[in-house]
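Order emerges. As here.
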Amino acid sequence: MLQIGTKAPYFEGIDENGNTVKLSDFAGKKLVLYFYPKDSTPGCTAEACDLRDNYQRFLSMGYEVLGVSRDSAASHQKFIAKYNLPFHLIADTDLTILKAYEAWGEKKMYGKVTEGTLRTTYIIDEQGVIINAIGKVNTKAHTEQILG
């Protein structure tokens, strides 16, 4: 994982609507940048819905929320529509952002070692510095992990 206190790596990606989203778009705001394995899977849906249900709380505290996975923009559109998600999702199909944020790597599932998305969340401050990094995400109570 990236270290707290370091500058967040620059990123540029395409959201569910085909729009370019960059780290610099969030200058002056705190950003919850969360990486998740796959749209519409149980854990990822629980995490997204927890963030959705607390979205107004995030906004009132000066945060924006942005999700990143390797799913396509079309998949993100369906996920957003199905669960009424109020925030954007980046389609990182070439793994550029996932790798820059050390959210791609080796993981064990059912005793088998594979490469995949490591569920990770970074909190980035108004100046683009990582102020928190969460590697053991509680998908059902992620807001509490972030806001305490």
